[in-house]
């Protein structure tokens, strides 16, 4: 019998992590076996660009993610490498850099800085050095949140190796601050919560206004989550994402004067936007319009999910995509084509771009059993239009970051 809350990893997962441990030995040499951790990625089904506007979102963790192998050292060196960049980055724990180096290592380093600063502030002794190797089977930079995956996974690993006694939320918040303050992306709270608070078989309902969470079961026997990677690199993602955050802040500044109780854009009634629209920059008005309708749609999608109505859920996703395309302007032709193609598949309930957009992936809600038909149809349409095949995957859920027992 499986104890509630305990997850048994598949043989395939354990073998992947064991192979990662071998890479660790190639990188750092023999010695005590490293400890191994897995941290999932996430896909967001409902609530596009709502987290930094205080709205609700409904993501779920997926069974692809970041692998971490780590071993304690007897000195105070911190050495980090990635299977994607084998060059070992070495720092002294007593002289950690205070500014980012604009490389992948900023993500885990930001978490190390967060946690060591907290220790120093509380007067606790600073822990010993570590050798760490990252890797994984999650597409990077594709909107499946490899960045939050590596950050939350690092917090979980450090908590364990340094015996910090952190709560789940402490780890989520350390990951969030690392990405926001050290890496410098003005990201919302969704990604680290989606990963750090994951529960298999559920969508996470996260209300980003008060950070409250609920677990909503998703019927995996009836529904599949299919993710299609356009392969379009999100070159503009970081700068355009920060621009959307600024535009929403500007729109809220204008609209709040006509809605005194509002504390974020999520709170602005549609009538207020309509009455102020004439005196607003049309771009700001469009951004606000997306957010206001998207909040309503996300509540509707929640009702459809609870009522077991996948057609309703899929309809919300497709409407969300249209709004992200036309009002929020974060789509691209490749994403639009995949959503259009999904609309013609009888086994697909709906689709939308997932993550911040500007390339990356779409998520399609599919009737369980119809995945192959939908995949073939998406691939054929995409190939016809763009002359290459997109990567299509069916993701299952995941219980969240954890140590993998592999010995
Ligand atoms: P996303 O979160 O959608 O995957 P981001 O641009 O936010 O895209 O984050 C991707 C970045 O995260 C990568 O460019 C890299 O710097 C870092 N990263 C994530 N996972 C790893 C990993 N396993 N090894 C090295 N760097 C990683
Ligand atoms: Mg990211």
Q: What fraction of residues sit in β-strands?
A: 15-25%
The CATH C-level class name of one domain = Alpha Beta
Largest sheet: 8 strands, mixed
Gross geometry:
globular
- How many H/I helical runs? 11
First-last Cα distance? 21 Å
Rg computed from alpha carbons, rounded to a whole number of angstroms: 22 Å
Ligand kinds: adenosine-5'-diphosphate, magnesium ion
**Mean pLDDT across all residues, rounded?**
95
Give the ordered list of helices and strands: HEEEEHEHHHEEEHHHHHEEHEE
Please bin the fraction of helical residues: 40-55%
Number of strands: 12
Could you list the spans in which at least 5 consecutive residues all have pLDDT below 50? none
Q: Which structural class best describes the helix and strand composition?
A: alpha+beta
